[in-house]
Amino acid sequence: MSRVTVTFDNHIAHVRLTRADKMNAVDQDMIDAVIAAGNDVAASDARVVILSGEGASFCAGIDISGLSGMVGKDPAELLMPRTHGDGTTNQWQEFAMVWARMDIPVIAAVHGACFGAGIQLALGADIRIASPDAKFAVMEMKWGIVPDMGGMVLLPRLVRSDVLRRMTYTAEPVGAAQAERWGLVTELADDPLAAAQALAETIAGKSPSAIRAAKRLIAVAETADAVTVLDAESRAQVGLMGKPHQMEVIAATMAKRPAVFD
Predict the structure, then answer these.
(1) How far does CA 200 lie from the centroid of its chain?
(2) CB of 120 closer than 8 Å to CB of 59
(3) What is d(CA 241, CA 46) in angstroms, rounded to the nearest whole number?
(4) DSSP helix/strand/coil, 26
(5) What's the DSSP call for residue 21?
(6) What pTM did the predictor assign?
(7) Rounded Cα gap, residues 239 and 96, in angstroms
(8) What is the pLDDT, as a whole number, of residue 81?
């Protein structure tokens, strides 16, 4: 049975978790399908991605029933470093990091439960739009383990250290309003999928080369020193100014029409 669907419409990739009967709980088939979807989108001409889940929840976390297959196996054999993606050591990490590495913007539309693997998948997005009833939890401590699906790379970029520690130590769910106050959620919307669609349409209408350059530049700005960032700004701008996409933006703005890109 399919775990994920991927559709493309007007340069927007829609990636939907489709295991609604299990609240989109993650099993091995889901991990394989999400990684494959990320690779498909990365190879496409999409300009923006929307991640969502069908049914009552975005993703309730790992399907515990599926963990029985790990019983008796050496954890080191399952998890210890070996390259799976660009810097990831195993499929569990690639599940989220394939989206964090994407060179186009990724928007997560979150409703219901967003726990464990689900929150780490949502963290792989650039932007998280959540319904008021959404709940978020770093769930691993409930099972006596630590976040291991990219969460320790992604969550510290968004929240203060004390928030990171509270969520990790307790495994307690927090509501969407609190998550927004902590910086985990970008904005709230009664219909997060509709809000994500509207935002995706806005982004898809911008210069594709400028959007990609902006995402690369932001990644540098978040981690590098001022001298490196200033140099990256200049190099990015040189790569855009006077090129076809920028000239189309100028022409469209002057003519008061939507820009059309090749």
Answers:
(1) 14
(2) no
(3) 22
(4) strand
(5) G
(6) 0.91
(7) 30
(8) 46
